[in-house]
Amino acid sequence: MSSVFTKIINGEIPGRFVYRDERIVAFLTIEPLRYGHVLVVPVEETNRWTDLAPGTWMQLNEVAQNVGRAVIEAFGSSRAGYIIAGFDVAHTHIHVFPTDAMSDYDFSHAMAADATDPALMDNAAQRIRTALETDDNGYPQLM
Question: Model's pTM, two decimal places?
Fold first, then answer.
């Protein structure tokens, strides 16, 4: 059975993509710690990050680092948070989000999906895409 992330990647469930290529995608989470909270996900459905092929792991982290820089630029935060939790969805993913304090890492403070403002979510995605220079689907813009 496909994970919810695979369904998002395949377009079966809507997602706000900020980056995508053949192996890695990045989209906003529906339950953010802060607006601008992105999940960086391999296209290959792998439950544990420790089971990823080394090349996929390297590319996943390269994209996460680029998304982190974009989040800092887009939101003016002092840092980009980075977390691998892995218990909520059985598909490897890295949480990247704007942060200014360790208290921002507390998942008990995440917004519920129905409590987020769709306009603010769309704005957050667009701000990150602008910083990453990707189009509305997350693909790198051709110069």
Answer: 0.95
Tokens of 143: 């110069």
Fill in the amino acid letter for 120: L
CA atoms of 135 and 139, how far apart (whole Å): 5
pLDDT of residue 143: 59
Structural domains of the chain in order of their starting residue, each with its CATH number = 4-132 (3.30.428.10)
Q: Determine which one of 37, 93, 95, 109 is catalytic.
A: 93
Active site residue 93: yes
Q: Which residues of the chain have pLDDT under 50?
A: none
The full length of the chain comes to 143
Asked whether 42 and 60 are in contact (CB, 8 A), the reply is: yes
